Every structure is written in C-alpha cells, then in structure tokens.
Amino acid sequence: MTDLVEATTRAWNDRDRAAYRDCYSPDAEVVAPGAIGTGHEALLALYDEIMASYPDNRITVERVVAQGDLLVEESRVVGTNTGPLAGPDGAPIPATGRRVSMPLVGVHVVDGDRITSTHFYWDTYDMLGQLGLLDH
CATH no. for residue 109? Predict the structure, then answer.
C-alpha cells in the first residue's frame, strides 16, 4: 500500500498529471488548506493551482505509515513562487519569486490500488511568512 505514496510522488515530481489522477478513485474526497472537493476534477484543480504557483516544486517523502486502509505520509515540499497564489477571498496574490520549504502531511484512505480520500495539511502561516507576505 505504501507504493501509492511513491506513485503519487513520482507522478507529481514528473509532472505527469494523468498518472497522478489515476492514483485516486474517480469519486475521491480531496481536502487541503483552502480546498475541499470530490472527484478527479477537484483533485486536478488543486494540482493545477499548486503547479501554477510553484512550477518548480518538488516533494520529498520523509516517512510513510500504513495501517489497515489508512496511509499517512510526512513529506517536504520545496519550490519557488513564480505564479499567483489564491488569497483567502479568492483574489490573486502576485508571485513573490521567493523559495519556500515546508512540511506537508497527507492522510489517505485506500481501497484496493486507489486513494479514496485524501487530506493534506501544511502550515499556511509559515508559507506566507517565507513568501514575505506577513506583517510582523
């Protein structure tokens, strides 16, 4: 089952949108900071948004734990913000050109060889600080 994390990470880092999509069931639940949806359309909308904001991003998996139908990954994503970000109100925030490095946790439910639910967690406050977008 842990091979699904390898497959999603490889597809992500290779920019293979179709292979990434195929790791998920067609009706998969997708939850991430600022995004909640169901199905491949929601998954690929999140994928496209992140790729547009951080086109050079790379994910490195640091730890994977599997138990029953639950798969948890602890990873790190590093990338340069060269595209706009979606602000809290949906309005675009211009690219900063700054590089970020932040932890990412994915909690996935698996059925057979596909992910049926995925919840991603990252520290948006830390990301905005690294981008220089917070007033201190």
Answer: 3.10.450.50
Here the tokens at position 121 are: 């967690």
pTM: 0.93
Residues found in the chain: 136
SS3 call for 16: coil
Whether 11 maps to a domain, the answer reads: yes
Among candidates 128, 125, 105, 106, which has minimal Cα distance to 117?
106
Q: Is 52 left (phi over 0), alpha (psi -120 to 50) or beta?
A: alpha
State the pLDDT at residue 136: 60
Side chain identity at 107, as an amino acid letter?
A: V
Question: Residue 136 forms beta bridges with which residues?
Answer: none
